[in-house]
Amino acid sequence: MKFSNELFKSVAGVRQEPPWLLGLREKAWEKFEQLRDPIPQDEEWKYTPLNQFKLDDFDFGGATQTGATPFDFKPLLIQGSGNIVQNQTKKMNASLDPTIEKSGVFWGGIQEALQRYPSKLEPLLKEALKISDSKFQNLHHALEQGGNILYVPKGTEVERPFYNLTLLEKGSAFPFLLIVVESHAKVALIDEMISVLDSHEPQFVSCDRFFWVHPEARLDYTHVQQCHKNISLYEHQYARVMQDAIFQSVHVGMGAKCAKSKIHTALEAPGAQAQVLGVFFGDERGQFDHYTIQEHRAEHTQSDLLFKSVLKDEAQANYQGVIEIPKVAQHSEAFQANRNLLLSEHAKARSIPKLEIIADDVQCKHAATMSTLDAEEAFYLESRGLSPNDAEQIMTEGFFEQVLTKIPSEEVRMRLQNTVHAKLMRGGTNA
Description:
The structure is a single chain. This protein is an alpha/beta fold. It is 23% helix and 37% strand. It has one domain (5-373). The protein is built from 9 helices and 19 strands. It has a 10-stranded mixed sheet. A 9-stranded mixed sheet has the order 3-4-6-8-10-12-14-16-18. Strand 1 (82-86) and strand 2 form a beta hairpin. The protein is globular and about 65 Å long.
């Protein structure tokens, strides 16, 4: 079934949600229908291949027939505080450490959360699902499936990370994640998305994430996507970081035909800190398009962003980064760096920093590089007996190491190192 009003009514008709939430989804659908498709003149879409996001090319209906794929996900689970495994429409596995559950932590689906915490959840979802000027965000809010919520109460520190695994089968996918970390609490979550079906049919995947880090709390979030090359991926992430809170966000992209993301971090009160990191490996004709916003809304706030891309074959990476520091945000610090390593003469990278700074007492720096492997380093490694392929692997892994070490799971880090190695050894297409 294609994206249409008939589809929306069909999905809405089987939802078991309160009227206020169904109303939010209906308003989002109406706004989606009102907004035009993106055009090259739109700042956020200027460098995106729009033909990869033509909704008429995608089918939603396959998502209602998932669950029959024989995929063993158990080796992917980590030794953490709780795991959730889901495909587009249903949960396949869920666990939560009983000790952590007794502390008041909630880790589960929206339906269960609505039953247990209706008054607390309503204002949060109204904030997360409010009408947007983005056509694709409104589409996601209207058709969202597989939404999960992590809630950590005041003063609770969870040492081991949570794990959220989404298995992509047939059809479109609309996963949603809401994380609320109350004051003086601490938590980490790894959010991984993996294609489990080989298909040449175009597939659309939309991810939406909303985080709220309360005063003096800490959230470490990691997102990993390993999508097949038939997928057009649209991601939106919005984080609110309050007074003296710390937010770390790590993004790892290893696949998709075209992966487009908008990552917006708002530092809302003095002392708020955010570190936004990313590593991306593009091969064949894959493309990454990133648009980030570091928004300083108060004085004495700090943000630090580092995105790194390795590109081979005819892969491309486009990065646009905005730093906003209004007059009220004096004594703030903002740093932005985009590093690109090109392994092929046909690979391309573009980096465009944008500084919107009104405050006059701030520290702000930005940097961008496009480079190839260092010939002297390669010669040194080969002179010690390494093959050219092994030398390339070591240097590429070293390029990523600064970010990958921030992921709070050795199992996930090892899997990603294996993925990088496989991509380096795999021949691409230069046709």
